[in-house]
Write a structure and sequence with these properties.
The chain has three helices and 22 strands. The protein has 405 residues and is mainly beta. It has one domain. The strands form two sheets. It has a 20-stranded mixed sheet that branches. A two-stranded antiparallel sheet has the order 20-21.
């Protein structure tokens, strides 16, 4: 049995300024929270967080500038997040018999600092377009898992607060412009990067499983956690050590696009690199690549016919044996519009080589999986353009009104 009383107070002091091109807001925000938990197990009552107030202070900034094809926006703030009720429940969750979890009555709220910057420019003389998006987050006292497995393969996990902040950063750029005076040939570059740094806690020695029949939460949490500050857990006395995982995903696309009256064609090359490093076990470090070459062609011969095809080749590097086999993907489609009705036929995965490869990376394991997909198939479609129907109807009404005048 448990009872949670959560008190949160937020105050802010902000200043605002604006004119025809610029809007600015800035100030300071403060969060003061108390998270009190009363837990009762085996007749013993434990109270945590009583009289303990956590104070978080962060600046608040919002800036926006718009003028002559330039749009710049900047935002920074902080936000407090309370632990979920289930993460503090003083009992076992055995809904999944091979993934058993327990709550932590000493869990504290986490606090996240968030910022993003976006910029876009549009040159009307060269028809060049540029956009940039940057974002980042840093979470203190982030809720992570302390986990272990017993000899039978059952996994146990307890939520804890990380001593080190969890950080994420994301960047995306896009630049496009015509390379010929008639603007029929266009190039586009789209690089990106995503970084994630997080901490979990794993066992450094053999840990026994939990006896579900005689489970005593108070005895377990005293052995696992220690006092209110978690002295046994964070010092490593209960057999857990900090594991830091840093993951960087970066890559981009390069595209050439050619357009004339009846033809649109594009050729794209894209590459993505994923690097993961583990502080607790460097032998588990990973480095894998995905490459993709893709071409799209759409031809309009006239009389409302459209014929399109897409062909791509994907190949991989750095995956485990049996995974990451190269593959071709080829699709074709044809359509014919008859007034407001469009008839279409699509043949997907003509070579029947498409596969869905997914790599899952966590602090505890790396998993490569192939999942079933539909494969080669034919699709016949009928679509209706109600805009054309309404346009014809409105034209008839308008003509009738002119005849009456």
């Amino acid at each position: 049995m448990s009872d949670n009383r959560y008190i949160s107070n937020r105050g802010a002091l902000t200043v605002q300024y604006g004119n025809d091109t610029t809007t600015v807001q800035f100030g300071v925000m403060a969060d003061v929270v108390q998270n009190e938990v009363k837990a009762k197990s085996m007749g013993v009552e434990t109270i945590t967080g009583k009289g303990e107030w956590l104070v978080n202070v962060s600046p608040f900034v919002y800036y926006n500038y718009e003028k002559e094809g330039i749009d710049l926006s900047l935002y920074y703030t902080g936000m407090e997040n309370r632990p979920s009720a289930t993460s503090m429940t003083p009992s076992l969750n055995i809904s999944n018999p091979v993934q058993i979890t327990a709550g932590n009555i000493y869990l504290k709220p986490q606090y996240t600092h968030h910022t993003h910057v976006s910029l876009s420019t549009n040159n009307r003389e060269t028809f060049a377009f540029f956009s940039m998006y940057l974002s980042g987050q840093m979470t203190t006292r982030s809720t992570v898992q302390a986990s272990w497995m017993d000899e039978s393969g059952v996994r146990y996990a307890i939520p804890v607060n990380s001593k080190k902040p969890q950080s994420t950063a994301y960047m995306y750029l896009s630049y496009s412009r015509p390379v010929t005076k008639d603007r029929q040939l266009t190039i586009q570059l789209s690089p990106y990067a995503n970084y994630t740094g997080g901490t979990s806690y794993q066992t450094t020695s053999k840990q026994d499983g939990i006896d579900l029949q005689s489970f005593d939460y108070n005895a377990f949490i005293d052995e696992f956690w220690g006092d209110a500050s978690g002295d046994r857990f964070y010092s490593g006395q209960s057999g857990f050590a900090e594991s830091r995982t840093n993951t960087l995903i970066w890559g981009g696309d390069f595209q050439l696009k050619y357009s004339i009256e009846k033809l649109d064609a594009s050729l794209t090359y894209g590459a993505s690199n994923r690097v993961s490093k583990y502080s607790l076990d460097p032998t588990a470090n990973l480095n894998n690549w995905t490459h993709n070459i893709n071409t799209d062609i759409l031809y309009r011969p006239g009389k409302d016919w459209e014929i399109g095809t897409n062909l791509s080749y994907r190949f991989y590097k750095g995956y485990t044996n049996g995974f990451g086999q190269p593959e071709w993907r080829w699709n074709m489609q044809v359509s014919k519009s008859i007034k407001s009705v469009t008839l279409g036929l699509k043949v997907a995965d003509i070579l029947n080589q498409s596969r869905n490869l997914r790599r899952t990376i966590s602090a505890e394991y790396v998993e490569d999986t192939y999942s079933n997909i539909l494969g080669r198939f034919f699709l016949f479609s009928v679509s209706f353009n109600f805009g054309k129907m309404n346009a014809k109807k409105n034209a008839n009404i308008e003509g009738a009104m002119w005849n009456m005048m």
